[in-house]
Amino acid sequence: MTHSLPNVTVGTLPDLPDLPCYLNGEITPLKDAKISVLDRGFIFGDGIYEVVPGYGGVLFRFDEHMARLERSLAELRIPNPLTRAEWHAVAMQLIAACARIHSSAGQNGDQIIYIQISRGVALRDHIMLPGLRPTVFMMCSRMTLPSAAQRSEGVACVTADDFRWEKAHIKSTSLLGAVFSRQISFDAGALETVMFRGDYLSEAAASNVWVVKAGEVLGVPKDQLVLEGIRYGLIEEMCQAAGIPFALRRITRAEVQQADELMLSSASKEVLPVTTLDGQPLGHGAGRGKPGPVYARLYAAYQQLKARSAQAAAAELEGAQ
After folding, report:
1. Which domains does the chain show, CATH number per domain?
2. Model-level pTM?
3. Distance between CA atoms of 172 and 158, rounded to whole angstroms?
4. Which of 34, 167, 171, 222 is catalytic?
5. Residue 306 known to be catalytic
6. Helix/strand number for the chain, H first, E second
7. What's the pLDDT at 315?
């Protein structure tokens, strides 16, 4: 008597874009890239990732992103498989290839480089097995920045308790907590979920959160309870340059709810105003429910930094020729 194996179908496979990616030393079409089913990134989520924005073919804050990647790898005891120069070279190769595809389709030249490193392939065992060859994956995709309406009107967020683990400072591929928290906002028709550990602000599902009170920009401390976004240092630099007071400290739920302004930051959001929280408009007086003046100054400063970064890269390239 023969038995056929069950054929479980839960929807159709997506059509992957015709883009190149890097996998373990080779450039290959994204649709053809394959890893072992025993890769520890697949089995355990035992790996880290990094996301680097590129504007007009220039990587933005690359060294800062690499420093965070190195910190995450060290926490997981995974050796860094490439040097910074090698990471940069592969990223630029992917950006150039993607830019050709996107420009031919009439799309903009802003890109996101996604990097993922897992511990490698081994028989299933929870121990951090030494001597494995890390699995290295990189891909480039078009970056979708917030719309003009989101900039001018602000976005809506909801709040939730932060139920995730207490090593949030590691940019880990174990992202089920972030998936759950982002789904909370999606189900509510909001952009992000602002989370609290007890009575204190932590971060959003995929963003850092900033409070403005009496002209001062406030963020939560850089510790193991939050992922330190690259915009932490960037926002502090912009505040110092603009003469805006800046501080990192514990922020209560009440302070968030009563903020003059609330902002999100991430690689793809840059800096973005939140004008509604749990269905209630934020802010005071005539500015209630509207993006505030501190956000406007920081957004303008951010665009200036991007322009200067591109100019510096162009000058460096010209000098090398």
Report:
1. 20-142 (3.30.470.10), 148-306 (3.20.10.10)
2. 0.91
3. 24
4. 171
5. no
6. 8, 15
7. 66
